Amino acid sequence: MKTIDDFEVAGLRVLVRADLNVPLDGGRVADDGRIRASLPTLTALTTRGAEVIVCAHLGRPGGKPDPRYSLAPVAARLGELLGDRVELATDWPAARAAVAALRPGGLLMLENLRFNAAETSKDDVQRGLFADQLAELADLYVADGFGAVHRKHASVYDVALRLPHAAGYLVQAEVAALSRLTADIKRPYVVVLGGAKVADKFDAIGSLITAADRILIGGAMAFPFLAARGGKEGTSLLETSQIDVADGYLDRAAPGQIELPSDVIAATERTAPGQVVAADSIPADQMGLDIGPESAGRFAASITKARTIFWNGPMGVFEQEPYAGGTRAVAEAIIGSDAFSLVGGGDTGAAIRALGFAEDAFGYVSTGGGASLEFIQGKTLPGLAVLEDS
User: Fold this and answer.
1) Which of 57, 210, 272, 308 shows the greatest Cβ crowding within 10 Å of its Cβ?
2) Catalytically annotated residue among 106, 313, 316, 346
3) Catalytic-labelled residue, pool 197, 201, 214, 328
4) CATH fold of 4-172, please?
5) Sorting pLDDT into bands at 50, 70 and 90, what band is 345?
6) Do 182-376 and 4-172 have the same topology in CATH?
7) Can 168 be counted among the known catalytic residues?
8) Is 147 a catalytic residue?
9) pTM for the complete prediction?
10) Nearest-CA neighbor of 330 among 360, 362, 366?
């Protein structure tokens, strides 16, 4: 892949596909980790005299404009971090006019790409027409939204076919870090999986059984496995469609390779006081909201022995202090280990920041959840593959 350092960008209009899909709270950015991760590339381009056009998505607005998913709060926060106001072009006439007015060192942002259904369309022609519009704005395309490179979307894949293209600094760093989990892995290799997005991660477990020495599973990820062995999971977030799949994984894994919680902290609802109960005997009117202290201790002991660690997904509802203990214990164990650690996924990165951990205490904090999982499985990521033809 060519990088932005391979191009003389002064005076060029550069379209940067960033990953700015951040959580919002009351119209403000709740966690700006992904915005901060975009700064090195954006700053390098503007400092070198490029005219920068930033494009990104936010949430899933369904292919039409929805003010709830406007990038306006993101543009405001990016402006704060850059020390200058960032203009948000809210429609195509405004975008063309703003691009025409750009000067070297200037930067503007396009409104949410997913306000146009063609961005995520399965139809190559529809995606291509939208990519044509985007490509008309620029002389060079820079891929810097690693969290989206596993998607064959117009702004991720098709634009790169239409313009000279390069990888940004974030994509370079992500590829370098994740490559340490695919070749010459230092063992023991321990994988920690959690979070609420169960289906997104289940496919990866098959590959991880082959690659990892131990897989620790917490959060909502654990409930299909516990249910597969006859556990009673109460009202926990349980994807029943994954129970048989989990049962198959347990049969395939070596004895002790998959480690599940033995206890959880359960409550009738997220705002109610919790109690420690057996993970396979959660009362019918309660839900598991965090791994319990015994499980946290066992997970920490396994992590301490590792030389390579991949962590994707918190152990519980870390946003609320009574249910943050499991995630905190995992983070502390990783920091205290001698292993190279890679933390993957937006929720996991948000969790460590919310709990007060410095990102540089870990080996690498990836901005990509699904993208990082697919990368370490050896899958072809369209947004990276298209850059390799530079």
Assistant:
1) 57
2) 346
3) 197
4) Rossmann fold (3.40.50)
5) confident
6) yes
7) no
8) no
9) 0.90
10) 362
